[in-house]
Structures are given as C-alpha cells and as structure tokens.
Amino acid sequence: MKSSISQEQIRQQLEKVEQRIQAACQHSGRQRDDVRIIAVTKYVDTETVGQILSCGLTHIGENRVQDALPKYEAYQGQATWHFIGHLQTNKVKEVVGRFHYIHSLDRLSLAQEIEKRAAALGIVVPCLLQVNISGEETKFGLNPDDVLAFVHETSNMKHIRIAGLMTMAPVVEDPEQARPVFRELRAWQKRLQELSLPNVTAEELSMGMSGDFDVAIEEGATFVRLGSVLVKPEMT
Fold first, then answer.
1. Is the dihedral of CA 175, 178, 179, 185 positive or negative?
2. Are 109 and 89 in contact (CB under 8 A)?
3. Model pLDDT for residues 193-211, shown as the tens digit of each residue
4. Domains along the chain?
5. pLDDT digits (tens, 9 = 90+) for 35-64
6. What is the DSSP letter of 227?
7. Which H or E run includes 229?
8. Cα dihedral 191, 106, 142, 225 sign
9. In angstroms, rounded to a whole number, what is the distance separating the alpha carbons of residues 148 and 142?
10. Backbone angles phi, psi at 110, to 5 degrees
11. Contact 143, 154 (CB under 8 A)
12. Is the alpha carbon torsion for 111, 159, 205, 189 positive or negative?
C-alpha cells in the first residue's frame, strides 16, 4: 500500500535530516557536499515523488521495477534515478537506460546482462557492487572473499563502470553496532581504488539508511538511502 504525505511534512523532516547530516560531517571532518541523500520512494505514491522533488531532493531510489516505472515516466527528467533493490536478470532491460545508477550488482550473470543491454544502447552504466559485509543469510550481496575476482572480471566489460560499493547493515537498536560494517566497506573501497583497474573508479559508498545514516556518514558514505525518516507521516 502506497502512502501519501504533505510537502510541508517532508520539508520539516528534511530539515531535521539536514541537521543530523551536518552534525555527522562536522564530527568526522567531512564536507556537507560529499554526502547526497537518495530519497527512497518504494512506499509512497507518484504524487509524493513530485513533492519530494519540489523540496529540492533530486536523487530518487526505487527497489522494484514495476513500482518505479510510473514514477519514472512522470518525473524522469527531474531526478537522478537509483535502482537500489535486488535486480532480477529478466528486469535488466527495463532498468538500463532509465536508471542512472544500479546499486545492487551482486553476481556475474547480472553483470553480463547489464553489459549486453548497455552495449546495445551505446551507454556506460555506473554500478555499485553490493557486498554482504555482515554475512547475514537474509541479505543479498557478494561475499567479501569474492569481491576481487568479481571486479577483475567486470573490469573487462566496457559498458559497466564500477562506481562504488553498497551494503546493508544489520538492523540494530544501537547504530554504533553498524559502524564496523560501514568501516569494512570503506576499507574495500580503498582496496579497489588501489588496484587501478580499467572501468573501476569506486568513488561512491552507498551505505546508511534511516536508522543509522549518521554513523554511515562518519565512516565515509557518499550516498545515504533514506525512506521513513523523510516520507513517513509523523504521528500527532
């Protein structure tokens, strides 16, 4: 079920988020411009996406292709679109050419399909490797032990650019418990950058959600994926 929220509520919640981002940046010695908010819109309707854009948020994240397409058709030129959910190979044709970033590259068969579709369109798709740092069986992503071999393989694909890494931390009451996960992803970013492989830039770290984005920013996040903290109506 899709929810709706007023533009004023979004604006008020964005102000609170901004304060937290600025505090996290100040605490870790980072520039505010280093961090971009991806507004996760899987639980809101198309009209609400327009309200989010009107509040100045221009990065939109969607988890499911079928939910994303109507929103994309309505606002395609007004946003940078991020596919952040698990991507089935048979849905790649609907994502490549629409979404500016794919955050969930986690297997070779998916990379091959993205490469094929991107080659047909004559484009290069920025992809983030999803790495299962926490090792939870319920989460998708590459095992860290497989990352180097995977990157060496994809570096030969001319229509995929490994633009960074993505992970999902465990859901915990204390965000501090997620810090080691974010720190390890950043360590992997450094390793990939030191390889100096073709088509691997690894400049982005997509990590941190509504419950733990402050800690993720302190550990180097460049994209934070925020849903409920932005677009969940507050109880009065």
1. negative
2. yes
3. 999 999 999 999 999 999 9
4. 7-231 (3.20.20.10)
5. 999 999 999 999 999 999 999 999 999 999
6. S
7. helix 228-231
8. positive
9. 10
10. -70, -45
11. no
12. positive
